[in-house]
Amino acid sequence: MPEHEPPTGAWELPEEFRLLAETVRRFMATEVRPLEDKLEHDAAGLPPELLLPLQEKARELGLWALQTPAEYGGAGLSVLGQVVVAEEAAKCRMGAFFPAAGAFGGNPPSVLFKASPEQFERFARPIIEGRTGKAYTAISESSGGSDPARAIRCRAERRGDHYVLNGTKLWTSHALTADWGVVYARTGEQGERGGISCFVVERDTPGLSMVPIEVMNSFSPAELRFDDAEIPVGNRIGAEGAGFALASDFLVRGRILYAAGPIGIAQQALEMTVEWVKDRAVFGSRLSDKQGVQWMLADSEIELRAARLLTYQAAWNADLGRDVRVDASAAKLYATETAFRVLDRCVQLFGALGLSREMPLERWFRDLRVKRLGEGATEVQRMVVARHLLK
Ligand SMILES: Cc1cc2nc3c(=O)[nH]c(=O)nc-3n(C[C@H](O)[C@H](O)[C@H](O)COP(=O)(O)OP(=O)(O)OC[C@H]3O[C@@H](n4cnc5c(N)ncnc54)[C@H](O)[C@@H]3O)c2cc1C
Questions:
Q1: What is the DSSP string of 231-248?
Q2: Any residues with Cβ below 6 Å from ligand 1, and which?
Q3: Terminus of the chain with fewer CB atoms < 10 Å: N or C?
Q4: What pTM does this model have?
Q5: Whose CA is nearest to atom 35 of ligand 1?
Q6: Per-residue pLDDT for 4 more than 90?
Q7: Which CATH superfamily is domain 245-390 in?
């Protein structure tokens, strides 16, 4: 056996990432959480008079347009850097849907990075510069969201210099407040993967109407109805039929980022729970003295560490340019399932207080439940991993 040098240095993230995490942690503690404390429990966002000054402070720290590559005017963080930020930025009450309560806004839907320069300047630039808010991405329909290549029925028919859009999109997040969004519609045969095209649709498009949908958490998505809505050909991103091919890389990387937030939330909940059980006494001793409780805490810590390592590894490999389809699915599945399980234990250990609206726990519980379905449900991630094993 050849002799191996023992490792030098700790098993930890490189220093630049630890400093980045520390900057975000401080920003969350000093700027974000005190503002959120002024809002009602289920608030779906900060009002502009609180959000805009917060965004200014984030921009001064360079915490802006983090997912936007530097050549497009963003911070151009690596995937690992984005993961580190997302984990810390989720540690606030509305962290599951708005990292840092929306302070780090400024990224267009990723498919815009494949748009023409004119489309990019017109639609994406105002978001990166903070002149307008989030844009939406509409894929899912009533016919199903897990297998959109087969399910999408919303049709775009070309007529001269425009397309005529008919159909309905469901569950579209941020649509009610966005100036525009990206809509995937069928231009080819039903069931054909290559038959989907991607369009930018502006808010005031005649023939487009929206209806809010109530779900278990406070971020109400919308139903989008297209009734002979005319979309200029110039709003199509990429070639006709190339919609999914354009989006697929981004969808895979999006899963890695999606994994990071729930880990941050569950870690925050676990830290709160550790403090609580050290203080709470029942049956003559503190909860923390009871082995059953200690095991719940230990399992939570171990599972969160495993989720974090899977997610960092997926990000690391993505930054190396590797095929991360399996890494991303494994991270997304394990992080979202783990975070939900940990939150459930934390709620249990807090007793009735854990279910009350005095605590962020019950809100996080609902938010994390949604995470197991969004961005490719748990079963879809399993399918990706199993396909790889069996191919
Ligand atoms: C709050 C919220 C916000 C959302 N925001 C957006 C958005 O912005 N844009 C957007 O396009 N969509 C959005 N969605 C929709 C979301 O992406 C879909 O709900 C999700 O993709 C699942 O699709 P579905 O609900 O149609 O379920 P279906 O696709 O009908 O699946 C139903 C169940 O079957 C399971 N399943 C699927 N395939 C398999 C299989 N092979 N084996 C075993 N089980 C399987 C699924 O995991 C799921 O549990 C949002 C949803 C919610 C709740």
A1: EEGGGEESSTTBHHHHHH
A2: 136-140, 144-146, 171-173, 215, 221, 370, 373-374, 377, 379-380, 383
A3: N
A4: 0.95
A5: 379
A6: no
A7: Butyryl-CoA Dehydrogenase, subunit A, domain 3 (1.20.140.10)
